[in-house]
Specification:
The chain is mainly beta. It has one helix at residues 237-240; strands spanning 20-26, 36-41, 45-50, 55-61, 68-74, 80-85, 89-94, 101-107, 117-120, 126-131, 138-143, 147-152, 163-169, 180-185, 189-194, 199-205, 211-217, 222-227, 232-236. A four-stranded antiparallel sheet has the order 1-2-3-4, with no helix packed on it.
Length: 245
């Protein structure tokens, strides 16, 4: 069967004058007719698009002209935004009442391009997983205090390579559940870490190439990962928790 062609775009946004690395929608604005799109560019700017007028309404410059490769809205901070750039900084922004201020920044000393992952546990507490200065390290910190929870580094004989994608989550924290982190590695493996113990629970070989992206639905307990081999893998939490018993 012939491949189904892609649908025509509803509209095309132009005007960044630079390559786009990352996108993030914000549709929870009090005005439902005022959806926002954030785009991170290789020139270091974050553009804020009004999707009603289809124009840039503002731009943010907090990474010193270095490429921005991760942008994420924050649900526990009204008008809050997280960005990550090639300047090795993760920035938290306050965009309330027309502000465009970096309120906090974290220097990771990591020269890779793996995006950080944020889990907003409560209104006042978040967990942030990010690649750290060691090429094979991932550090988990508590925000806003920036307290280090743990540093995760596989044993040398595991030969996983660098972390390429991250997904942190904690389901029902009030019930005493432990935070977990999924890491997609350079060797094609997806690894489940228990952050309370700081150890690997299980490892699933999904791809022959580096795991470039992954996501996980904690309610349906299913995840999906993709790699440069042009293949998506869907897997369940039960496949990954086999070593937890």
């Amino acid at each position: 069967m012939a491949a189904v062609p892609a649908p025509d775009p509803v509209y095309v946004l132009r005007g960044t004058n630079s390559g786009i690395n990352t996108l993030c929608f914000q549709c929870s604005n009090p005005d439902p007719d005022f959806p926002i799109l954030y785009s991170g560019s290789s020139n270091g700017l974050i553009h804020i698009w009004n999707l009603k007028t289809r124009r840039v309404c503002d731009s943010l410059n907090g990474h010193g002209g270095n490429s921005v490769y991760c942008v994420k809205t924050l649900s526990n901070r009204r008008n809050g935004l997280l960005s990550q750039g090639r300047d090795q900084n993760i920035c938290l922004w306050d965009l309330s009442e027309g502000r465009n201020v970096v309120t906090e920044s974290l220097f990771t000393e990591n020269v890779g391009f793996c995006k950080c992952s944020l889990s907003e546990v409560t209104e006042k507490r978040s967990l942030l997983a990010t690649p750290w200065k060691g090429l094979e390290e991932v550090r988990v910190l508590e925000l806003p205090s920036k307290t280090s929870i743990c540093t995760l580094k596989p044993e040398a004989d595991a030969k996983l390579g660098m972390p390429m994608s991250l997904r942190i989550w904690q389901s029902q924290p009030s019930a005493g559940s432990h935070p977990h982190l999924l890491v997609g590695y350079e060797d094609g493996s997806v690894v489940l870490w228990n952050l309370s113990m700081g150890r690997i629970l299980s490892r699933l070989t999904c791809h022959q190439e580096p795991v470039m992206s992954l996501d996980f639905d904690s309610e349906k307990t299913k995840g999906v990962s993709g790699s440069s081999e042009k293949k998506l893998c869907v897997w369940s939490h039960t496949e990954l928790e086999k070593l937890e018993d």
